[in-house]
Amino acid sequence: MTTMSIAAALLDLIAIALFILGLHFLNSPPTARFGNRLAALGMFIALVVVLVQTLGVGWWAIAIGTVIGAAIGIYAAVRVKMTAMPQMVALYNGAGGGAAALIGAVEYYVFIGSGQTALDPIVSVSLVLSMIIGSVSIAGSVIAYLKLQEVMTGRPITYPGQQFVNALLGLAIVGLAGWFVYSAGTLPTPAFLGLFALALALGVLFVLPIGGADMPVVISLLNSFTGLAVAITGFEIDSVLLIICGAIVGASGTILTVDMGKAMNRPITNVLFGAFGAAAGSESSASGGPQNVRSVNADDVAIMLAYASKVAFVPGYGMAVAQAQHSVKALADQLEARGVKVFYAIHPVAGRMPGHMNVLLAEANVPYEQLLDLDDANREFPTADVSLVIGANDVTNPAARSVKSSPIYGMPILDVDKSGNVIVLKRSMRSGFAGIDNPLYELPNTAMLFGDAKASVDALTAAVKAL
Amino acid sequence: MIDANHLISLLTVLVLAVFVGFEVISKVPTTLHTPLMSATNAIHGIVLAGAIVVTAAYFKGPGSNVAITILAIVATTLGAINVFGGFAVTERMLQMFKRKESK
In which domain, by residue range, is A29 found? Predict the structure, then answer.
């Protein structure tokens, strides 16, 4: 080893330690920012080390790519609305996957042009794997982005023979990848490009049948795919740094994916291949007919809230869609000024990515101590006088506890029905994502406040103020 | 031929890193899951380092093919979007997480 490569390896070690410490500090809100900065410092060190090692070879190409990428990345980060965070994270993630895939392509072309006769077996295996996984990740992330941005429908897109087509695609990819490794990287260029295209197609077809409400699972999974692709790229270019970073991210994505699956009481395979909610368009799984519900107006609810001693807010994707988080905070402030205790009950799969509701409420300056997770919230509901359900549906459905035939039976839910009164803010009586009737709405202690979530909450705030 | 020693040491590093990942991440509360995700997202932006390495390796050789040059630049661009965007957006989110202000 030269002195420079020893120094580089030691600095990389420092960078890795900073990444791990940074993630460690992310485990509590007061230290999280410090953690992110430690990780960013680690990244800075790692990138400077690699730049110095290149000795300026190809500096202009590296500079062009880095400057353009940094400008796009930072501009988007500053401009993005908090409600659009899930699709933003999906895009950044896809960019990483795409980079891993293209690194493989560049390596391949360099090898072909070099006149060598065979790629090292470790390099050929890792090159083809990182290219496939990275391509699936970028293509899948772009589809997830389009669905979340509502450029295309959020509903599952299915067609007859879908599993068959995917299986065929998978087989073709395995075949070409096998050929690539067997030929030690010397397969004809059209076959290599075909492999690339098929991997991209697999990414598209893999996310198409997955519905909007299952996006938290998909986004975590794609995150772990990119981590995996990066780790494998580490084998390809012989970099311990990439292996470690990729492995840590892969592990974290896997944890979140499994957590999300648990929170829906569904195996991950069912989320990915079940096209859950495909029947929702026809509403065939709902029992049909209007449910017998009680409707109230804002003034009645305002009185109920103002004279309560404890109120629970239960936000769901509807709050994000209506951009109602600031209105909700304003209402909570009014209530707290009157001495009412307030908390927010947050289901792990509320919204479109893990922790989505927490970020929105944090944006509205809700202190994080008031954001309770499933277990803590369920301890509080029996002593809450009123639960205000804002744009959440399936995560409050008591059928998940009692109706064995229900598609969501066994899913852990927020027990809002155990609080004194339940007020459901809802646009109309349309059933939720899963297309299942919610018996909560027919309970004697439940009343419906129809209308746009933001308008309803604003009306409640005004009414409480007027009391 | 395969350098078995080297491969095994890389695999060892991989497996240990996976365990470290599980340990560190499983302690993060659900409140911080979105920032966690975007922070880990930024960390896999280290792929930018990989893009820089292969770009430099390419220019060390002939370095004259326009198509490969473009591929290398795009790879670098994507990696940079991932790193810079990832850290910036995480920082922006974490700024919002506040304690109850004492009056």
Answer: 1-79
